[in-house]
TrEMBL record:
Coiled coil: none annotated. Keywords: Membrane, Transmembrane, Transmembrane helix. Signal peptide: none annotated. The lineage of its organism: Bacteria, Bacillati, Bacillota, Tissierellia, Tissierellales. The chain crosses the membrane at residues 32-52, 64-81, 101-119, 154-178, 184-209. This is DUF3100 domain-containing protein. The keyword Ribosomal protein does not apply. It comes from the Bacteria.
Amino acid sequence: MKNFKLHFLVLILVVISEFINTITIPIGAGSIVLLPMLFAMIFGVLITPKFLKIANEKDMDDAGSLIGLTLMLLMAKYGTNIGPTLPLIVKSSPALILQEFGNIGTVLLGVPIGVMIGLKREVIGGAHSISREPNVALIGEKFGLDSPEGQGVLGVYIVGTVFGTPFIGVLASFLAAYTPLHPYALAMASGVGSASMMTAGVGTLTAAYPQMEEMITAFGASSNMLSGLDGVYMSIWIALPLAEWMYRKCYRIKYGELPPPVVYSDNLSNEGDEQ
């Protein structure tokens, strides 16, 4: 909290981003909405190269430690929207719960592509989920973060931190403009277990549908909360075993043999069966 340079840099970036304000780009029947949050993230990335000597390693470490605090305030604000809309959210609870099975899509899409481009067991850690903090902890506990699986989950975590938020924001805007999906459904889909990604998606949707702002933020926050609660269990019981099974299948298809056995950090051996 004593890093005044960091707070000054953040203040400048926020002022510049708010000055740019929301940019709406009409495309066909719809539009792409670019929020100030997106510009702030882009500017933040641009000031981090070492040769610019603007933000150093300590600044970035300090900024990372403050993310949790700021997101707590943000989630408290979203929580005030959940209460008044709770009856409707309860009615929609089956949809909120079932949408968690959409996380399996990362396995079904990511594992085959990862093996095809030459990844080995890194693809299990990287493709079993969206690789947020709980998933990093899960892979670290099961395989160790110095393992190929650990390298995979950390790689996706870093990429998601840098590019995930602006990607979700632009994707939500595109889907709202060019698909028949309801804004509430898109709000639920934005709650992937990352507060920053959810905020980007919800912010874009509320900019496009200001008359639905209360319900959109409530559905997004509720979905994100449920993703945080049951996402780990989904990974443990379904996504991670499925990722390992698909990895063996895809590896055998590409290389004509089963992957070599692996010894985990707990000294248990995975022999890679022929299933």
